[in-house]
Amino acid sequence: MNKEKIEINWSKFKRVFDYNPFFIHKDIEQTFFDIENKYFDLKWNSKYDQVVNDTSDDVNDGEEKEIDFDLMQSLSIEPQKDSFSLVELEEFKVSHDLDALFDQKINENTSNKYILVKATSFDRYKNDAIKFYVEKYNIKPEEVKYISIKETKELKEKITLDLYNDPKVKLIISPVFSFIDESNEIDIEYKGSFLMYDKINNKVIDLAYKHYANQDYFYKFFYLNQILKENNIKVDDFSVIIVDPFIRATKQFESNKIPFYEAFSGPRSFSQPSGDKAKEIYSQAQSVYYTSGYYFLYDEANKEASKTRGWSFYNCIKNQKIIKRNNVAISKNASYDFVNLKNVNEFLNKYPEIHGYKTFDESKDFEEIRDFGYYSRIIAKSYLEFELQPWNYEAYKYFLYTESKDKYRYYDLWLEGQTNYETENSLREKVAKNFYDKKEGDIKTLSGISIPSYLKKDKTKTSILLNYLIGPEYKLFSGNYLKTADLKSNTTFLHKKNEFDSAQNYFDVNIANIVRQLHIKDARICWYDYEGFADLYPILEGWIPYGQVTNQVSIIVTQNGVEERCLNIVKDTKNLTLMDICEMIDEIYADKADYYVVYNKTYENSRNEDVKQGVIKYMNQQNPSNEVKRFQEWFNNRYESIYEFTQKIDHIKLHTVDLDDCFDYKNINNWKKASEESSDSYYFAFETTKGDIIPTKLANDFEKVNKATYNKSLSTIKYLNFFYSIKKIEKYITHDELPLKHLITPYTELEDVQKGTDAMEKAIQRYMGSISDNVWEKQIVPNLKKYCENDVRAMIMVYDLIMFMLRKFIKNIDEIEYKVEERRFKYVYEPETNELKVVKLSNV
To answer: What's the sign of the alpha-carbon dihedral 402, 405, 409, 411?
Structure first.
């Protein structure tokens, strides 16, 4: 009797390491469609409400513009090919998981043309990486052979094996191997492909679109190793081509170029230092040792790296261990030269000894990888149970609640047939109910929710998962209120929801101190908002791969609440220069305005700091490139000194007012300790009706009633559900029809560009040359200007909301707005008179 056969590739196999067998074989898009249109109603006898899970306005533009580099995946575009058609692209997207390249918020509703432009950039990256490797090992062109993307799967495998057996071939590009595991109730054909196979060194080489190779590559090499072993292909080493970690740490990139490095190990994950820490020599050295993989290869006895003794990809796979430790230790007292060195090889050759190195402990710093057959059993059982059998809500629920240090326990019990989903789920809810209702037991004994990594980056899908899990009573909360890992049961969610629903709408009088500078008499206020874009290749010299570059700004200057000037600037990304960005800074500076208003200052301040550091680097170069030389000539004709320009950025940062501070979630006590301008808290409760805010009494036991929200934000508006993006606040204002002085065009009514990622998409298309001059000037630029100006006017509207709230409670608010004579002051609330008192602060 013939057994059924299924096909598994790496993208599907890696799901076993998320410890949720329910989703391993699921077609994700179809599954979520079915949840929304069939399974939700069947389980809850209620129609699915799509609005509940709308996350489109739950991200600040500043966050939205940041691309998640960890989502970049390898592509298998045919090397040395200049371009490919949209027809080929569709096949390419399906075959090579192109959609996984982009964060979902960038990926949704984007045009094929945009994705094509992006894919072409990754194609180039892959070709450049291959060229780097060929040159590094002096491989002759005739010794390099490619497997074409156009060939059938079967033919790709045959060609690969033929090339493997051809003694003239030294390097195989995009090889494809497979084997069939017949040990289970179904036959499983495992297919594997990767960047290159080096026949000289018996080495598997893959590619990372970042400056380190994370945990995924250990798992992938484990997978590939089994496939190659079954094909009798010798493997003596594994490596990953990455962006040069030294140049990434020092930001010494040339524009439109990426230098590479071959890594033989890598960290579990990595968070790039930011701010002042990123400038520390110690921190830069630490980053280089860590992201290059050198730290994991280090042999302390010989004071150098050793692939044979260290924890290389190869040694980890051979020993079936994955590096778990995610902290790196080096001495802060060692000195390093980051000025005269050019790349990671020069750095490691000069500083082979890691001072302060911390030896790895095999019992603590690693996690096991089990035999391949173990995971193959999981693949088979998952298919038999969750694909061939009817949909099972109880299994769905059971495996979502698997946030645990010992995740293999869930697999082991399940494989042994010892899991009763309904019983386990009932026991979980019983423990939670006893804890909340009877104050018995400890809910910490329960594991929390674990969303598979390939789903949790997509906020909408995560919300749909939870909505179906919880039922019609589900409400989409920000992670600032309820993190999924803290969600121990459905009962936990309902308990937290009830706590939230019982809380009041209220605000702390200190919101007045956030906006107090805007009340200074005759102060000139510059409200501004950036739009930016990025590419895999650095857009400007000194910028990093996927480093954000601003190309657009909208500016409104007001004085005493009266608009004096409105300016919308869109720079052509096709020919963008640092000179263009400096010109935008000059316009924002607005002849040294008194204050600058943004929403979520992290983005604007970071982009301004990038420009400041870029200018300093450009102007201090002794042997400048042509790009830098042109900038130096332009800069010297425009400014007397570097300081004349950089002090503008310092002035803007020092005088920035962030409206986000009124709604962002933080520990208020810590904020007060760090802020000289805060005063004692007084709270004001209110309800919103159509067209108004109605003052209400504070609850007698205020802290207890507002346990869910107390001390977490200066403003609690329950409609926002702990979100605080400017778009979410706009929806609140529009929903309740609040009669503010300034209202904006709802974002959903804007043409073509409705969010920051729309603006980014247009900027990238133009940068890559896929938008003509005529279309850019006549269609794109006007819509970009409308969107960005709308963002700035939204800030003014949010300020109006803050003042609208204050006016409902503070007797003298109109008497002080735009009339304060002091330059350094804070407001102190006087409950006896129900007024704000202006208290002068000492000069610094």
So the answer is: positive
For residue 724, give the DSSP letter: -
Residues 6+ apart with CB under 8 A from 284: 249, 250, 278, 336, 338
Residues 6 or more apart in contact with residue 12 via CB below 8 angstroms: 24, 25
d(CA 644, CA 646): 6
**Cα separation of 648 and 632, whole Å?**
18
CA neighbor of 321 nearest in space, from 271, 261, 403, 265 = 265
Q: Establish how many alpha carbons lie within 13 A of residue 37's alpha carbon, considering only the half-sphere containing its beta carbon.
A: 6
DSSP 3-state of 517: helix
Q: Assign residue 739 a region (left: φ > 0; alpha: ψ between -120 and 50; beta: otherwise).
A: beta
- With 50 as the cut, is the pLDDT of residue 265 above it? yes
Q: Cα(489)–Cα(535) distance, rounded to whole angstroms?
A: 42
Asked whether 306 and 297 are in contact (CB, 8 A), the reply is yes
Strand partners, 144: 171
Is the pLDDT score of 669 beyond 80? no
pLDDT of residue 70: 38
Residue spans of alpha helices (H) in 234-312: 245-250, 275-279, 281-291, 294-297
User: Is residue 84 over pLDDT 60?
Assistant: no
The amino acid sitting at 789 is E
CA atoms within 13 A on the CB side of 219: 17
**How many residues are listed for the chain in this entry?**
844
User: Is the whole model's pTM more than 0.70, yes or no?
Assistant: yes
Q: Which of 812, 275, 795 is nearest to 512 (CA)?
A: 812
Q: What is the DSSP string of 617-637?
A: HHHH-SS--HHHHHHHHHHHH
Residue 134 contacts residue 126 (beta carbons within 8 Å): no
Question: Is 519 within 8 Å of 817 (Cβ atoms)?
Answer: yes
Structural Rg of the chain based on CA atoms: 29
Nearest Cα to Cα of residue 200 among 126, 139, 265: 139
- The mean pLDDT value of the chain amounts to 90
| pLDDT tens, position by position, 583-636 | 999 999 999 999 999 999 999 999 999 999 999 999 999 889 999 999 999 999
For residue 507, the cross-strand partners are 684, 715
- The pLDDT tens digits of the residues spanning 779-827 come to 999 999 999 999 999 999 999 999 999 999 999 999 999 999 999 999 9
What residues contact residue 786 under an 8 Å CB cut-off, 6+ apart?
745, 750, 751, 753
Contact 332, 275 (CB under 8 A): no
The residues, any chain, with a CB within 8 Å of residue 754's CB and separated by 6 or more, are 747, 748, 787
End-to-end CA distance of the chain: 86
Element (H, E) at 128: helix 112-136
Distance, CA of 58 to CA of 678 (rounded, Å): 28
Q: Report how far residue 522's alpha carbon sits from residue 538's, in angstroms, rounded to the nearest whole number.
A: 42
Distances (CA, A) of 283 to 266, 276, 277, 278, 290: 17, 10, 7, 6, 10
| CA dist., res. 792 & res. 125, Å (int) | 37
Question: Which among 797, 789, 786, 829 is positioned nearest to 810, based on CA atoms?
Answer: 829
371 phi-psi bin (left φ>0, alpha ψ -120 to 50, beta other): beta
β pairing state of 298-299 and 304-305: antiparallel
Residue 691 phi, psi (nearest 5): 90, 5
If you write DSSP's letter for every residue of 354-379 in order, what string do you get? -TT-----TTTSEEE---HHHHHHHH
DSSP 8-state code for residue 483: -
